[in-house]
Amino acid sequence: MSSKNAARLARPKDVEAIAELTREDLQARLTALGLSDFSQLPSEATIAGSWEAAMASPDGETLLVATADNQVVGYAAFSENDGDALVVSFYITQAEQRKGHGSRLLQAVVDHAKLNSQRLGVFISTNDSPRQRFFNSTGFAPTTAGRQGQIAQVTEKEKLWFTQISDN
Q: What distance in Å separates the CA atoms of residue 105 and residue 75, rounded to the nearest whole number?
């Protein structure tokens, strides 16, 4: 059997893997903030239910996955509003990072988002240097806009990064 690395729209059967990766991402972000108690995080079943609802909603987020050897190794979700698209979630599992999956997945997001949007944004934690480097290397730049994000009762500062994806 040949290797199958791709980025594609998520399917209902992908939800369990996406939920597992979402929890892994949340744990990594809390660890980066110096925390090790993950008891406040939602369960994978709760996360899966949220992703199922988002996929079922006609006005919900667009959910994509990255695969390696036909296994889900990452996911991205974005929403659109008034000519801008916003990446609301983006993660590649640690073991599969720096293998091209993130670039492939982000290109799939851009390909879908540019149908209705001119710009693509993403909020990135101010203490997440690897994510900042990745998005910077793909043409995103930080703006002065920011927000306070919440992860299981913990506040993290985030900056908004944008890139132009369409000339329309």
A: 7
CB contact set of 163 (below 8 Å; sequence gap of 6+):
119, 120, 121, 138, 139, 140, 141
Q: Contact, 117 vs 166, CB < 8 A?
A: yes
Q: Residue 7 pairs with which residues in a beta bridge?
A: 66
Neighbours of 29 (CB within 10 A): 20
What pLDDT, in 10s, does the model give residues 75-116?
Answer: 999 999 988 999 999 999 999 999 999 999 999 999 999 999
Q: CA-based angle 89:60:139, to the nearest 5?
A: 40
Domains and CATH numbers, the chain: 6-164 (3.40.630.30)
Average pLDDT, the chain: 92
Let me know the angle formed at the C-alpha of 66 by 101 and 157, rounded to the nearest 5 degrees. Answer: 75
Do residues 9 and 62 make contact, with C-beta atoms less than 8 angstroms apart? yes
Instruction: Note if the pTM is more than 0.85.
Output: yes
